[in-house]
Amino acid sequence: MNVEVTITVNGTEHRLQVQPRTLLSTLLRDELDLTGTHVGCDTSSCGACTVLVDGNATKSCTMFAAQADGSSVTTVEGLASNGELHPIQEAFREMHGLQCGFCTPGMMITAVQILERNPSPSEAEIRSGLRGNLCRCTGYHNIVRAVQHAASSAGGA
Amino acid sequence: MTTESLIGQEVKRVEDQALITGRGRYVDDLRLPGLLHLALVRSPYGHAKINRIDVSAAANAPGVVSVFTGADLAEQLGSLPAGWVLIPEQTGGEPMATPEHPPLAVEKVRYVGDAVAAVVADSPAAASDAVALVDVDYEPLPAVVDAEQATMDGAPEIHEGVANNKSFDWTVAAGDYDAAAAAADVVVSERIVNQRLIPNPMETRGIMADYNGGTEQLTIWTSTQIPHLVRLLFALVTGHPEHKVRVVAPDVGGGFGCKLYLYAEEVIVGMIAKQLERPVKWIESRTENYVATTHGRDHIADAEICGTSDGIVTGLKVHVYANLGGYLSTFAPAIPTILFGLMLGGCYKFENLSCTVAGVFTNTTPVDAYRGAGRPEATYVVERMMERYAHEIGRDVLGVRRRNFIRPFRRGHDMPIGVTYDSGNYQGALAAALDKFDYQAFRQEQRDARREGKLLGVGFSTYIEICGMAPSAVAGALGAGAGLWESSTVRVHPTGTVTVFTGTSPHGQGHETSLAQVTASRLGIPMENIEIVHGDTERHQFGTGTFGSRSLAVGGEALMMSLDKVIEKAKEIAAHEMGVDSKQVSFENGTFYVEDIQEREIPWGDVALGAYHAKNLPDGLEPGLEAVSFFDPQNFTWPFGTHIAVIEIDEMTGETKLNRYVAIDDVGNVINPMIVDGMVHGGIAQGVGQALQECAVYSDDGQLLTGSMMDYAVPTAEDLPSFETGRTVTPTTVNTLGAKGAGETGTIAASPAVVNAAVDALKHLGVTHLNMPLSAEKMWRTIEDAKEARRARRSAAARGGN
Amino acid sequence: MTTGTTDPFAYHAPTSVREASQALSRYRGDAKLLAGGHSLIPMMKLRIASPQAIIDLRNVEGLRGITENDDGSITIGAMTTYHELVTSDVINSKAPAIAQAASQVADTQVRNWGTIGGSLAHADPAGDLPAVAVALGMEINSASARSSRSISCDRFFRGYLETALRANEVLTGVTVPAQAEGSGSAYVKLANKASHYAIVGVAASVTIDGGGICTEARIGITGAGPHAIRSRRAERILVGKELTESVINRAAQRGGADIAGMFNDDVHASAEYREAMTKVYTARAVSAAVACADA
After folding, report:
1. Are the folds of A3-78 and A87-153 the same?
2. Between chain A's N and C termini, which has fewer beta carbons within 10 Å?
3. b vs e for C200-236, b when ≥16 Cβ sit within 10 Å of the residue's Cβ?
4. Biggest alpha carbon distance in chain C?
5. Neighbouring chains of B at 3+ CB pairs within 8 Å?
6. pLDDT means per 10 residues in chain C (295 residues)?
7. For residue C2, what pLDDT is reported?
């Protein structure tokens, strides 16, 4: 039997009937065509699917869509506003924080959470905060720089 | 800023705008109307006979459209090819064994993950549900997973008629190792295991295929590094004509070598789409990826080094058991042989080398290229044995290296093994690294730390690498089934904007930026007027693809050739317009001009328009402005460098941490330092990952015990420090860009540097070698054993004293 | 081999413990409570677990939050997340081992959803919170449709993924007993680099009187055996003594004595290594707890 889910994604409310087993990531990708959220594993390890659910960084492959009923979700497509990139997006480009780009949406969303909770994190705090997001291209070096860059540009603003 | 200056500039990537806003288009992001979803039934056994497959329950399950077994499709699917067949001259006169490799197994399964049936349904969930309903009657057979054990008499026979499970025994040699060893003061031997790794690109593989029965056109979107080779091999295997197949590599989420083949699934998905005349998609789950996508490394090397007691190395001998897995993957035979054996001279002068490699089938996932591919394995043996030897003779590891370095050279150095290094300055790279790392100060710090019970160690890797394998004639003579050149098309549009079609196929390397930098610099036009197109067999000429750090060294040069051709033609048009001879025309910063005649100047855009307007072209000149080039280099390129790792070991627990990492790489001229640094960082992370924590483990009966990301430790941000990188620049003479290749240096250099550091930290306990990964338990046990041995020695000495 | 989809199931989101318990009864053991889901959902996606129904506790009233009671004890609702534990002033000041353990669970995303109740009820042999529950002497509060009760942590963990909860019982929260004056607690672990679960994790709490003598000690060990285990033999060596380095080391040598013969042995670590690390980490946990008590 299907369940009804009412969910606000990037500011737009949607009401959908889905199978209980539909994962939030599946809802976002297949029902709403928001394919910027990627799925890189099936064990909740890689973090490519990370989105914000009511402001909390969330592995959307590890949450049934039904659990997100009534929630407000932000995906990578919702980071920029009014055509302006989010500071973390600017920082990833500026500091070359991505190569193949597959982990990037989830990585940026987690970075947003890290900076929201701690506007001037140490390198160790950034690295520990990113532990749930795997990247195989960058060795994390420039991802860490990007988060630092976003932190300092926010501090300067 | 003139566009000329874009070479060597840290230009921000043009790829990023789409990727940071969620507009990337990876295979799983593509949709077609009426799309069906395919899931594969895979063997749970390492080795088993298939008695019977009952698909009836699955075929009747909700949403299921069709179920196919290997027997159903045997004819259409053919057998996957060995893309590199080693020549008998190098395999003791015995032809290499190339057993059949059916994309869907028919009679036997040979590894856990071997596909036996395909379920096609109207949703991914329905396809997954039905997989569990396919009833396969397996008769388990004895399995073998270790390459050495597989060669022993009595080992299970994996492929009929392949004696001792050996595909080949490959040999290469220089000088006379045995004589050198006999004459040497010191001979040191060690068994060096280079463990099996799982590549783990963040995007798993994925394939979508669509067939039009009216035009007979089959389109395959696949997450690959080699779209043209996939098309060629697909056509050869299936008989579907090459010109009726289009292969598209959309955005590809990393490859690291494991997307460099024709895979079973490409054939299965393509031919089922054709049979059903419906679009079909298959997306590999991560758990599936761990068994169905190729693994890397898995060498057991018995190495021996010999030399004088005062530090001159005279020879190296290596015998390798190279695990090939259950079948030959496309390039598998070349990796532990050509790309390994030819590297064993390192950056050293010794003249006697003996290398033999047994390529062995086992009941494991096929093994093929993984970042570095043969070269990390070789560098690991060379750099490990250099330090092993230095320790044996009681000399400093840097002093011994310096004594044996080849002297700096700019135009070719012939190696005893028969290859010619293009250019090198190994002393220079080491000196640059030591500028960043105070070796003497570290030794003091290490002694002080040891007094406080803290174990520190430093390790070096003065590595070389082979990039841009070529020329094709030589590779072909050594068994390559495909050319190793690269192609480009430069299409100048009437408005002067340019589309570049490259045969390279990037998946994170930033070619859209670096090739645009090259083009903009050469043509003197802004980068935004240039589009780089890749990854689509229908849009551009045949190309080889992206692997082996070849894209700039080979593909970049192919681009330079096309750029030169369009400039030459454009000069003719401009000269005609200006009423001068084309030899008088110069071209700079996007302007054609005649020296000393100021009013004679035509901008690039006008010439482009003129080429298409064609109202005033020189006699006999074709309209249009476009050029195609194929570049086949005359040699490999040989990057090199020095990497330094500092590690700290917790004596109580064995936990080992990388404290510091210094990397000096010489990749020749650099187009975009930001991109090259990024490549180096990622490479180091993979090499460090191998050294410290990554390892694919099989049970004796062929179960992958590290079958998920919960068990296989891909490094996280927390496992790594920031890296200190730098460069020396020794351009290659192989191409006009002077670029050598930068994609794999980090991986090649890092694992020996880290392991050498660990051995250095434990040297005082009598430790001479450690096999990777340096897990906490392994380090703890090593320390405990060493302490125990020391206690035993002391008490024996004490007894002796009494 | 699947594409990461679970088997089908029915989904319920009751609003009371009573309804949740009734739903458990209705499915006769083939339903699973969802309290974050970061252990359960991955198992379902790999189809290792395929319950007939999921009973999501997210709408159940009164299962969330951290309350300091008049007697100094702390009540933590089952649906309180790791993140809430890590950032709670009460937890950090009164029972720091809980915050230390919660901060070492998996990663940022998992800590946003994973809950203390989920962790304890799932009883993963390598979970972090179970060790702390044992070391702090927590009472596990549970309820069914008809009754409620408290279970001592010493009797709660029964075996591999097995607890004292009855099939129709919902874990509603825990009570952390008041920590006496001079108490300190800590949690340290040797983490698996892939999963971040504990290869060995040790939680310790000690109470030291004005004369510097240890009056009470509790040690909980996870990762090493089939479930979180109390290290009574090590505790005994600590109680009644001044906790000098040599006393702590002597106790640590007995750190694994209560797990003898039951050490896990797998691809990540041998039983022998786990046993050795139990000793090392017991020493580290106790030392950290003493430092905390002194602070």
Report:
1. no
2. C
3. bbbbbbbbbeeeeebebbbbbbbbbbbbbbbbebbbe
4. 62
5. A, C
6. 79 97 95 94 93 97 96 98 98 97 97 97 96 98 96 96 96 96 97 97 97 97 97 97 97 95 96 98 98 91
7. 45
**Helix runs in chain A, H state only:** 24-26, 87-94, 104-117, 123-129, 141-156
Per-residue pLDDT tens over the stretch A6-58 = 999 999 999 999 999 999 999 999 999 999 999 999 999 999 999 999 999 99
List b or e across B343-377, with b for residues whose CB sees 16 or more CB atoms inside 10 angstroms. bbbbbbbbbbbbbbbbbbbbbbbbbbbbbbbbbbb
Residue ranges of C 6-35 with Cβ closer than 8 A to chain B: 7-8
Which residues of C fall within a CB distance of 8 Å from A24? none
List, edge to edge, every strand of the sheet that includes C139-143: C66-68, C74-77, C170-176, C139-143, C148-152
For B204, the closest chain A residue by CA position comes to A40
Which of C3, C42, C194 comes nearest B128 by C-beta? C3
Interface touch A20/C37, C-beta < 8 Å: no
Condensed to tens digits (0 to 9), the pLDDT of residues C243-263 reads 999 999 999 999 999 999 999
Residue spans of beta strands (DSSP E) within B569-718 = 585-588, 591-594, 597-603, 626-631, 640-649, 656-666
CA distance C41 to chain B (A): 14
Domain A3-78, CATH class in plain words: alpha beta
**Chain C contact present for B122, CB below 8 A:** no
Predicted TM-score of the model (pTM): 0.97
Look at residue B356 and tell me whether its pLDDT is greater than 80.
yes
CB B420 within 8 A of CB B408: no
Average pLDDT over residues B158-173: 97
Strands B36-42 and B115-121: antiparallel
Residues facing A28 on adjacent strands: none
- Map out the domains of chain B with their CATH numbers: 3-17+485-631 (3.30.365.10), 31-141+202-254+259-292 (3.90.1170.50), 296-469+635-789 (3.30.365.10)
Whether residue B645 lies within 8 A of chain A, CB to CB, comes out as no
Q: CA-based angle B705:B709:B713, to the nearest 5? A: 85
Confidence of residue B2 (pLDDT cuts 50, 70, 90): very low
pLDDT per residue as tens digits for the range B714-753: 999 999 999 999 999 999 999 999 999 999 999 999 999 9
The DSSP letter of residue C78 is T
The residue type at C18: R
**Is any Cβ of chain A less than 8 angstroms from the Cβ of B708?**
yes
Amino acid present at B548: G
Tell me the residue length of chain C. 295
Residues of C in contact with A43 (CB under 8 A): 42, 45-46
Please judge whether B22 and A37 are an interchain contact, meaning their C-beta atoms are less than 8 angstroms apart. Answer: yes
Q: Which fold has domain A87-153?
A: DNA polymerase; domain 1 (1.10.150)
What is the value of ipTM here, to two decimals?
0.98
